[in-house]
Amino acid sequence: xTPPPAAMATTTSTExxxxxxxxxxxxxxTLTFAAGAVDxxxxxxxxxxxxxxxxxxxxxxxxxxxxxxxxxxxxxxxxALACFVxxxxxxxxxxxxxxxxxxxxTAAIGVTLxxxxxxxxxxxxWATAGxxxxxxxxxxxxxxxxxxxxxxxTARRMAVPGLPTVVLTGALLGLSVExxxxxxxxxxxxHEVASVLTMALGALAGAxxxxxxxxxxxxxxxxxxxxxxxxxxxxxxxxxxxxxxP
Length: 246
Description:
By secondary structure, this protein is mainly α. 75% of the residues lie in helices and 0% in strands. It has helices spanning 5-19, 23-46, 54-65, 74-94, 104-129, 134-158, 169-177, 183-210, 214-238. The relative contact order is 0.19. Mean pLDDT is 85; it is low at 1-20.
């Protein structure tokens, strides 16, 4: 017997929600949290520029070139832009063109470890050299931006709707023009809500950590990326092909 329309809608909605809470979603949301913490640290604690949200640097750099005092150093904005693109280029060469659901974790482990290494290097530099010297702070900003470029490229290749991890303009637009009552758009809508909330939480965590030190804020972001690596490793292990009997 054909089920009533209401039951069909409920079942479909539940399935959409279930699929939206898989390990790839947890992986990308954890990276989104890291992006919020990194931008809080870089904007308020290091060079006054964005390490993740490069849209801001695209505006800040021309303002500096035109002689306007915008609270950001033009050199840092340009360095962040260049290193973000460089990190994305490297990740784009290391990753396959498309990360299918069955094998995304295996491919993502390597590049996310690169991202983690860049963040760890930034923390070590802060701990050993501080950020008072201009070249040191610029180097830390460059490392953070390169890591965010790797992250953004990974998210783009995974192509999970509504989870870009570094820029929320598209998510906010989607929340404005899409209806959560449209089942076909519900997963994207849920992801967009989660992206906004998660990045805000990451930025809040980074901002609170800044009251202790810049290094503590960077450690928050580093910890989040380490968790993302763990999610990818566990997922890859669970999805490994079964061994054939001899």
